[in-house]
Amino acid sequence: MKRSLAVSEEEMHTTGLRETVRLVSTKVTVATATTGKRRKVQVVRNSRTVATSSGGLDGGSKTSLEALENLEKDTLHESWYKVLEPEFSKPYFRTLKEFIVSEHKQYNIYPAHKNIYSWSRLTPLDSVKIVVIGQDPYHDVGQAHGLAFSVLPPTKVPPSLRNIYKQIKTDVPSFSIPTSGDLTPLAKQGVLWLNACLTVRAHKANSHSGKGWETFTSEVLRAVLSRESGRGVVVFAWGIPAQKTCDKVGIDEQKHLVLRSAHPSPLSAHRGFLGNGHFKTANDWLRKQYGEGEEIDWTVLGESPAL
């Protein structure tokens, strides 16, 4: 069934439907295709498409602060929620969430809301052995899923991750470079792939930087460094932003190992990332500190060798 009607842009954002909308002057024409109770919405402004859907942070109708209220409670692993809960009532975090709501009214935001905190579920607080500090999520369709540097199939392995794989291969000769960019198996072993900024506007890198995420993820890092278990961790600080984060947080390098180098981006990888030996050094440290079997099995990624 199809129908046409004129609605305001404000009405379009508050509707619970999933529809196709094309702007004409100050009004829009709506073509509605209904399948059961679910409908699809696509907004085209001046030939620019903005995909939206019902269901809040995935880019749809629930764009109020209320829609975000339970995101942390519902999606953060309980081990992380327990130590990070004080942050959620602080002014900076409330302002951050209001900003994200505003962004979702106009743009696609990555990753999907259910994946913003996926790092916490894959790597519970007490399981962290290595922290890899990234910058912000990938900003194209089908890339970001909540782990720094990681992408899910069938997305091609990004250039920075290819360089990470090259260095793992150098450090661990038995590692077979995989065709997949999914780092989930390493996250489950205790590698925390943490971006400093946890969301991004589609097709606009660093668009959510400086809005509050960096303050929050610094607290995430502090939570790791001050765990009740007292266990030290390895921190990979690749690139100046990651190194500044470490300096800001203040890491006790008598207890923890901080490994610094250039970023794995093709723009800088040959200026100190490739050849840094970080993956071997990290495992040697973990083995020395905590015994055999505590190191990371990097080869778990290489079950399907690249062609």
Structural shape: globular
In helices, the fraction of residues equals 25-40%
Taken as a percent bin, the fraction of beta residues is 15-25%
Number of domains: 1
CATH architecture: 3-Layer(aba) Sandwich
The secondary-structure element order is EHEEEEEEHHHHEHEHHEEHEHEH
| Individual helix count | 11
Function: Excises uracil residues from the DNA which can arise as a result of misincorporation of dUMP residues by DNA polymerase or due to deamination of cytosine.
Main location: mitochondrion
GO molecular function, one term: uracil DNA N-glycosylase activity
Family: Belongs to the uracil-DNA glycosylase (UDG) superfamily. UNG family.
Describe the structure.
With 307 residues, this protein is an alpha/beta fold. It has one domain: 3-Layer(aba) Sandwich (Uracil-DNA Glycosylase, subunit E). Helix content is 31%, strand content 16%. The chain is built from 11 helices and 13 strands. It has helices at 9-14, 65-68, 71-75, 78-84, 91-104, 118-122, 159-171, 184-187, 213-225, 240-249, 278-290; strands at residues 6-7, 20-24, 27-31, 34-35, 38-39, 41-45, 48-52, 109-110, 130-134, 191-195, 200-201, 234-238, 257-261. The strands form 4 sheets. It has a 5-stranded mixed β-sheet. It has a 4-stranded parallel β-sheet with strand order 10-9-12-13, sandwiched between helices. The chain has a two-stranded antiparallel sheet with strand order 4-5. It is globular, with a radius of gyration of 21 Å. Residues 1-64 have low confidence and may be disordered.
